[in-house]
Amino acid sequence: MDQATSPAPDLTDHQFALLCDIAKTEAGLMISSSKRQMIQSRLARHLRKLRRSDIDVYLKDIASDKTGSLTGGLISVLTTNVSSFFREKHHFEIFERELLPNMIVKARSGGKVRIWSAGCSSGQEPYSIAMMLIKRVPDIASLDFKILGTDIDHEIIARAREGLYSDDEANTLPDVDRKMFMERSPQSPRGNKIVNRASGLVSIRPLNLLQKWPMKQQFDAIFCRNVLIYFDAETQQSLWPRFCAALHDDGYLFLGHSERIQNSKSYGFSPCGVTTYHKNRQHGAQRKS
Q1: Among 83, 96, 119, 121, which one is least packed by beta carbons within 10 Å?
Q2: In CATH, what number is assigned to the domain containing residue 280?
Q3: What are the tens digits of pLDDT across the range 128-148?
Q4: In Å, how far are 8, 28, 80, 86 from 256, measured between CA atoms?
């Protein structure tokens, strides 16, 4: 049997501890010992895909990874990339009702509207936002609306940039939206492609949330859903003020269904819906003073 395709041996205690340390240091992830067997199984599949068999060499290479691609691939192994179009519909309803009217006024007055999908996975979230905007803002092509999608995993970023989805993935869209925003791409095994007028609103880039954020402009809304559940409390608490600073006054932060900001007012947020937070204008003024 080819060494690169042979079954990976069980993780030693040292190897598992090293994996946990990399996950914590590089991405703020907490990996419990109860997940050891699941991680071992996922890692074995990942190593076969990379045609590697030596876990020690692989971990050593990650420690010296300069591009972030190996590290991102490992983080993807340790987490779950599950997404669908218009997931957690209540957030899109709040967005449309509470944010969009002011965004339209701002854009039609010559302003820029910026939305960030942090932890965008394979792209369904930012593309869902784009679809909603196109349906609700008929003159959007002449306005300055832009959506940024970021993720730590370089492989999943490539998928998001392609904008190609399987029939099962595409079928999470209502029929009218699928017909309006997707076209058949029979040359791909994922044969449904996001049309240009939707993908043209979206930029996809790699980003580790624990590292420096290169974005210079503030955002009107940030979606960071089902990402922070993988972080420990200390890492979460370090991110709340960064998200607050990245938002315009009166901006909104949307979190996943099991994520909460404890003592949110101390971080400049007020809860305003299910896992939805509004940046306090007074907090923004204090930061500028």
Answers
A1: 96
A2: 3.40.50.150
A3: 999 999 999 999 999 999 999
A4: 34, 17, 14, 13
Q: What is the pLDDT of residues 217-269, one digit of tens each?
A: 999 999 999 999 888 889 999 999 999 999 999 999 999 999 999 999 999 99
Is 151 catalytic? The answer is yes
Domain match, 57 and 180 both: no
Is residue 13 located within the same domain as residue 107?
no
Looking at residue 285, its pLDDT comes to 47
Q: Which residues touch 244 (CB under 8 Å, ≥6 apart)?
A: 253, 267, 268, 269, 279, 283, 287
Of 62-66, 155-159, 180-184, 267-271, the poorest mean pLDDT is in 62-66
| Residue 42 annotated in active site | yes
Task: Show which of 17, 52, 78 is a domain's final residue.
Answer: 78
CATH number (domain holding residue 59): 1.10.155.10
User: Is 70 contained in some domain?
Assistant: yes
- Is pTM beyond 0.70? Reply is yes
Range of the domain at 26: 3-78
Catalytic option among 87, 151, 153, 177: 151
**CA-to-CA distance for 91 and 181, rounded, in angstroms?**
20
Residue (of 120, 131, 37) closest to 82 by Cα position:
120
**Whether 177 and 245 share a structural domain:** yes
> Is 43 in the same domain as 173?
no
